[in-house]
Amino acid sequence: MKPIDTLYLDSTAKPTSDLYKSLINLDVMELPGQLDYFAPELYNSDELFASTGALVYVIDSQDEYLAAIENLILIINHVSALNKGIHIEVLIHKMDGSSDDFKMDTQRDIRTRIMAELSTFGLDDVLVNFHVTSIFDHTIYEAFSKIVQRLIAEYGVLEQMCDMLMETTCLDKVYLFDINSKIYIATDSSANSLQTYEACAEFIDVNTDLIALYEEDDIEENSKISFY
Ligand SMILES: Nc1nc2c(ncn2[C@@H]2O[C@H](COP(=O)(O)OP(=O)(O)OP(=O)(O)O)[C@@H](O)[C@H]2O)c(=O)[nH]1
Ligand SMILES: [Mg+2]
To answer: What's the superkingdom here (predicted)?
Structure first.
């Protein structure tokens, strides 16, 4: 979805579930922020969290976030007791439109508050991964790539295969992409930069646009006009 199209999304009133089938299969459930996570009439939270691989919590950094942090701590407290292996992923989201200093301060404040609250609740051993994201750049794709990679048990093998491909070719960097979502499932073990990812993601965009163009041509065989 293009960022501009997100302006017209309806607010999520109840849990929604999507099975995303591609190079990897992902079962994604969105729980609306205002929902009481114990709301038993809508879903069985114990059953749901006991079998969930990752909990992705989105914090709107442009809004008042103290209540969101409190809510997150309650959720972590509940969920970590049910499922020791669950990955807790916090998106410090909407990190755009303000100065770099302000962004740094907000990030630091959110992280510090979460870590302090976890400590107060005796949850110091819970590992929380933070991602700074925005839909107006590639950070959101990078974050979801990392989140998905943590769920792939065979990730180590995939990384080794990417390394081998690099050794036997003259490639500078190797990504294994899921074309439809632009999530990268694996990459080699060399340093990763957002710029390299962006260049590859843009190349994929151009390719998918071209494919769409030719698919349309097939349907309208008699009205072919092509611009190059
Ligand atoms: N500036 C900015 N706006 C964003 C970003 N991501 C989402 N938005 C805007 O935030 C608004 C809400 O987006 P949604 O995806 O509906 O958020 P949500 O958390 O699902 O909202 P509810 O379903 O109402 O709980 C939309 O107008 C988006 O355009 C971002 O990274 N930066
Ligand atoms: Mg929503």
So the answer is: Eukaryota
Residue 47 CA, ligand 1 centroid: distance in Å: 28
pLDDT tens string 199-221 = 999 999 898 888 888 876 555 55
Q: How does pLDDT run across 157-174, given as a tens digit for each residue?
A: 999 999 999 999 989 999
215 and 110 part of one domain: no
Q: Residue type at 81? A: A
Q: Determine which residue's CA is closest to atom 21 belonging to ligand 1.
A: 11
Handedness of CA 134, 130, 115, 36 (dihedral sign): positive
78: left (phi > 0), else alpha (psi -120 to 50), else beta? alpha
Query: Does 104 share its domain with 166?
Result: no
Is the shortest distance between the CB of 226 and ligand 1 below 6 Å? no
- The ligand placed nearest to the CA atom of residue 35 is 1
**Is residue 27 helix, strand or coil?**
strand
Return the residue matching tokens 């943590």.
Answer: 150
Residues 89 and 160 in one domain: no
Closest ligand 1 atom to 10 CA: 16
- In this structure, are 144 and 170 located in the same domain? no
- Which domain CATH number covers 93? 3.40.50.300
Note down the domain range covering 20.
Answer: 1-151
Sign of CA dihedral 113, 118, 122, 127: negative
CB environment 85-98: b (16+ within 10 A), e (fewer)? ebbbbbbbbbbeee
